[in-house]
Amino acid sequence: MGEQHEDRPGERRSERRTAARDTQQDDERRLLVDRVEEAGNVLSEIFLAQRLEPILTTPLTVQQLRALAVLQLDGPSGAHHLAEVLGVTAATVSGIVDRLVAAQMAERRPDPSDGRVRLVAATERGADAVRRLAAREEPTQHLLERLDLDDLRALVRGIAALADAARAEAGSPG
Asked: Cα–Cα distance between 133 and 56 in angstroms, integer?
C-alpha cells in the first residue's frame, strides 16, 4: 500500500506564516514601487521646469533661435543656406538676421573666398545664448551632494540594481 502523508497542524501553521510573510512582502514591494514612481514624477517635474526656464525667459523667437543654432553648428553661412535650412524665404532670413544683428547676437561679414558675398556669423553673445538654452546641465549634482553617505550608498545600490534590471530586460526577447 502507498504511504499517505497527512498534514500535521505544525506544518499548516508554518505554511500560513510563509503565505502571510509573502503577502506582507508583496504589499511592501507595491508601496515601495509606488514611492519610487512618485519621487520620479516629482523629480521629472522639477527638472523639466529647470530646463524650460531659459526658453521661457529668452527674448528670442523660435526662428531666431533656429538661425543661431544653424550658425553654431555650421559656422558662418550665407543667407541662401540659412533660408534653405530654416525652410523660409530669403526675405524672411533677412529680417531674422537684421534682428539678430540689432541684438548683437549675429554679425554680417564678407566671405573671405568671395568678397561680393556676405556671411552671417553668430557673435559670442549669440553663441552663449544657444549654449545656455541647449546645455544639458545635470540638475541632480547639487542634490546628491546634500545626501548623507548612507543615503547616497543606498541610492547607488538601488540605481545600479535598476540599471541591471533594465539591461536584462533590454537583452531578453520579450
From this structure: 10
Cell of 159: 540605481
Answer yes or no: are the C-beta atoms of 117 and 111 closer than 8 Å.
yes
pLDDT of 22-69, one tens digit each? 889 999 999 999 999 999 999 889 888 888 888 888 889 999 999 999
Q: Are 126 and 105 in contact (CB under 8 A)?
A: yes
Is residue 67 within 8 A of residue 100, CB to CB? The reply is yes
- Cell numbers 557673435 label which residue? 123
Measure Cα distances from 38 to 31, 34, 43, 125, 144 in Å.
10, 6, 9, 40, 18
pTM for the whole structure: 0.59
Confidence of residue 132 (pLDDT cuts 50, 70, 90): confident
d(Cα 157, Cα 116) in Å, to the nearest integer? 63
Distance CA 122, CA 108 (A): 9
What's the CA gap between 96 and 1, in Å, rounded? 97
67, with CB counted inside 10 A (0-12, 13-18, 19+), is buried
